[in-house]
Amino acid sequence: MFDSSRLQLAANLAQASPDGWPESPLQQDGVHEFYAATEQDGGAALALALLCAVQARKAREPLLWLRLGKVNGKGGGKQARSRPYAPGLAELGIDPAAMVLLRLPDLQSLLRAGVDSVRHGGAAAVVMEMDGRAPAFDLTASRRLALAAEQSGTMVMIVRSGAQPTPSAAHTRWQVTSAPSVPLPANAPGDPVFDVTLLRRRGGREGLNLQLEWNREQGTFRKPMLGHAPLSGGHLSLPAVRTGDAGRRSAA
Amino acid sequence: MREGAAPPDAAFALIAKQRGAQRIMALSPAALALGLSAGMMLADARALEPDLPALEHRPAADHALLLRIVESCERYTPMVAPDRDDALVLDLTGCFDSLGMDEDAVRRDLVTWLARRGFRALAACAGTPDAALALARFGKSTLRELPVAALGLGDDAHLALKRAGLRTLGQLADRPRAPLAARFGKAMSIALAHLLEEQDRRITPHRTLPPIWVEQRFAEPMATVKPLLGVIEWLAGQARDVLVARGRGGRRYEVSLFRTDGHVARLAVDSGLPLREPADVVRLFRERIESLADPLDPGFGYDLLRLAVPLHEDVSEGQDRLDEENSGKPDLAPLLDRLQVRFGAECVHRFAPRDEHLPEYADRLVPPASIPQPWPQPEAGEPPLRPLFLFDPPQPVTVLAEVPDGPPRRFGWQGRQHRVVRQEGPERLAYPWWKTVEATGPTRDYYRIEDSDGRRFWLFRHGLYGSEKADPRWYLHGVFA
Fold first, then answer.
1. If you average pLDDT over residues B116-125, what whole number do you get?
2. Is A82 on the interface with B (CB under 8 A)?
3. Which one, out of A15, A129, B59, B230, has a CA that is 20 to 30 A from the CA of B311?
4. Is the pLDDT of residue B449 over 90?
5. What is the pLDDT of residues B36-59, one digit of tens each?
6. What average pLDDT does the segment B422-426 reach?
């Protein structure tokens, strides 16, 4: 039986930050954008968004994952078709049984389904994956999502690859790339490491850059350390703060 | 019955090519009056009537038309079935009260209703479908007057009966049955019993009879769609009473909108959990109506709305468990229902594990209402051993690796070279030879690798070097986070 209870350890990104953060940068009722630095980092950006969403979960609420996709599978495009792989989710520590996958035919439907899902408020987080420029996702669309998120207390993760950051009403915007992992014995690849840059944060500091290693057993991120002893206990778990007014003051 | 595009008094023939000759399949009443008959060659008929217009006979279109009439006749009763290719049978048992008409009135109403739409129809009421059909087909007013041909036993039997001096059903009915059955077989006594209303036969309705349905007739047709949702809500309220009494909830609701001109529009919604509350049902229908690519056209108005519950399920009047964490978040099921109604049922899924050896078959997508299944726990202390995204099909890559079974040193994919910095493997997955006797395929050697940029990939060598393949190919099967 998959035990997701230990993943509910609320943790936050900031604990791995070198100089400490006063509060959680990811507020529960906000919109957060994760940009893949290059097209090859789409998987890393998505994984980071999913992992942050899992951390935001308080109970066994489901997560919604919205992505574009040909509904009837075998579309023969030039580009390589990849699909979400549930055993891979489980290996990251995300219970696939808690995930609901929505495959929408076009961007308009995706945004519409996204707003509906956020407004409903039954999911811990709604992760929306968009490829390419996505012109329909403009300031209005993101503002609509932000309002719905604030109203229902649902976290919204926008994962974008192959796109330049555009103005939006998101509370935070991150740029994500994969980073070299801390090797295991015999030079095997270790736990996933992400290189994360905070591009923008409403009413707060930006420009922070950190490397985060995901620890599945503890359900937390930590700073990757060469030769670190696992379970060193040096990483505290701060609760993901449900924001007060600090993050809401101004729109960009 | 033919569509009344031509003036009713026009003479014309419908023809089809049979064995190289153009043969008349059907004739208009005016053409019949000219002394022509179906089955003639068109050339013979033209010899008698040189200007006879001939049109192509299209049985499939005729049948489709008949089915459309069946659908519009469902305004009288849901039990309507087509009979052969020229008749309808309506089972009106128990419908007279709700219609507010008696047998004769229904018959007249139906004939005039069809006549207004350009169909000439003969109608008859009787205790059994066969009797009514025979009365209408042979144009008699009592069963005893019907000719023996109404039995439908084939020409030989009919001829034999005529030779015995038996021409009408009345004559047959007066005779003892046993000798008739002995001479003409069991089929005859059954047909006779059906015709003489001694034994009933159930018709198979064109559409399956829903277990629960409620309807609302309008004295004045509803000419706009605006009040539609209100009516649906009212009907759903009535359906709820029935469902509550039976301890059931509807999984599927279907609304039939009967337009005065005979057109019938149908809308259906499905839900993941059994529903009863009219508000929930209406919410789904609103979603459905909004997502229609072709909006509803009320035309001259709807005069009957029927709400059916074709699929229903037990509702467990459950109680929340005290020891369960209650997050206070609303249930996701109504949202998923709405999304399914709007974007199609195949858009919403959950993941379910599958006990399969080959990695691409280890998961599958299931409808969101399925019971969640436990997933195998990943091994503690290990990094993720399976990728987050899987390529389907695996992507061919060019790999530089030591023979016979060394790990990849560098690989090229999509025009880009990746230098392998860290790797682990191989994880050897044999082809599942235990499934079938003839199932053989190359073994796969999987490697988890990381390139110099820190990206993690899942590669495999397809086939063992030397023993299975001379030059095994490499594939990229997935990417890790």
1. 86
2. yes
3. B230
4. yes
5. 888 888 888 888 888 888 889 998
6. 89
Q: Is position A79 within any domain? A: no
Q: Using CB atoms, pick whichever of B325, B349, B378 lies closest to residue A101.
A: B349
Please name the residues between 12 and 51 in chain A that touch chain B, using a CB distance below 8 Å. 40-41, 43-44, 46-48
DSSP codes joined into one string, B93-152:
TTTHHHHT--HHHHHHHHHHHHHHTT--------SSHHHHHHHHHHT-SSGGGSBGGGG-
Strands B473-479 and B456-462: antiparallel
Minimum distance, in Å, between the CA of residue B320 and any CA atom of chain A: 15
Using CA atoms, how far apart are residues A41 and A52, in angstroms rounded to an integer?
Answer: 17
Q: How far is B36 from chain A (nearest CA, A)?
A: 55
Residues 153-182 of A with CB under 8 A from B: 177-181
Is A209 within a domain? Answer: yes
Q: Where in B278-415 does DSSP place strands (E)?
A: 302-314, 348-353, 363-366, 389-401, 408-413
* CATH number of the domain encompassing residue A159: 3.40.50.300
Nearest to B341 by CA among B234, B264, B253, B274: B253
- pLDDT tens-digit series, residues B180-223: 888 888 888 898 899 888 888 888 888 888 889 898 888 888 88
- What is the arithmetic mean of pLDDT over B385-395? 91
Which domain covers residue A127, as residue numbers?
A: 29-69+85-221
Residue A235: pLDDT over 50: no
The neighbouring-strand residues paired with B417 are: B412
**Count of structural domains, chain A:** 1
Q: Which residue, A7, A100, A161, A47, is CA-closest to B384?
A: A47
| CA distance, residue A210 to nearest chain B CA (Å) | 15
10 Å Cβ neighbour count for B44? 13
Look at B324 and A46; give whichever has higher pLDDT: A46
With an 8 Å Cβ cutoff, are B392 and A216 in contact? no
Q: Which residue has the higher pLDDT, B174 or A1?
A: B174
pTM above 0.95, yes or no: no
Using a 10 angstrom Cβ sphere, with 0-12 exposed, 13-18 middle and 19 or more buried, the burial of residue A95 is buried
Q: Which domains does chain B have, with CATH numbers?
A: 13-57 (3.40.1170), 61-195 (no CATH), 212-314 (3.30.1490.100), 349-481 (no CATH)
| Cα→Cα distances B344→A104, A110, B308, Å | 9, 13, 21
DSSP element (H, E) containing B52: none
The CA distance from A95 to B171, in Å, is 79
Q: Considering CB atoms only, which of B343, B346, B381 is closest to A113?
A: B343
Which of A85, A99, A187, A218 should we substitute to test contact with B (largest number of B Cβ atoms within 10 Å)? A85
B286 touches A at CB < 8 Å:
no
Residue B232, CB-side half-sphere exposure with 13 Å CA sphere: 28
Residue A230 has pLDDT above 80, yes or no: no
Band (A247; pLDDT cuts 50, 70, 90): very low
Interface test with A, best of B339, B417, B421, B423 (most A CBs within 10 A): B339
ipTM score assigned to the predicted complex:
0.81
C-beta atoms of A122 and B331 within 8 A: yes
B234-258 burial, b at 16+ Cβ within 10 Å, e below that, comes to bbbbbbbebbeeeebbbbbbbbbbb
CB contact under 8 A, A102 and B339: yes
